[in-house]
Amino acid sequence: MWWINPYWLRDPKVRVVLPRKSVLPLVVVVLAATGAAVACQSGSTTPTPARTVVLPSATPTPTEKDAVLAVYRAMYPAGRRAEQASPKQRRPILAQVATQPLLDRMLRGITALRATGRVTYGMPVLHEFDVRIDGDRATLHDCQDDRNTGQADDKTGEALLRGTEKVHLIISLRRGMDRAWRVSQMEQSDEPCLSSY
């Protein structure tokens, strides 16, 4: 990560997490079938009017794991926006997804990057695994493919540094008083990625 080590730069990539399939259609079918069966068994010769049951919209509630993964994934676009923003705008952008000690580390990294006339390029491919949540703390591992990321000269666009594949990161997160998860640490592991992506 460029805010961890100036030789590893990332460009944000947003992943969309699709909600689980809703069980609402099944519930409606079961309720309709139950109503029809009861009406047929009533012994009445007069047909009973059909009833329409209107159920509230069934929007799946995101799990804690979904929330942890979402903020981790959101950190990459936020880092990119902060890199392009003025120095005064950077902290508010990053504070939405990062907390101490990572927040200050990212800010220092962006300042150093911009001072050398460099920008990030490319898109890391995220391969998160082993998400663990314990109260207000969480950890996850990522085996990133960074071959299409790096640093480039801000003026010429010339690629100066390139990323590698299977970069094993360990990410720590904390949930704040506002109940929002934020990334607090990111470290590269000495252990190789075991992911078979």
TrEMBL record:
Keyword Signal assigned to the entry: answer is yes
Entry keywords, A to Z: Signal
From what superkingdom does this record's organism come?
Bacteria
Residue span of the signal peptide, if any? 1-39
Has UniProt tagged this entry with the keyword Signal? yes
Name used for this protein in its record = Lipoprotein
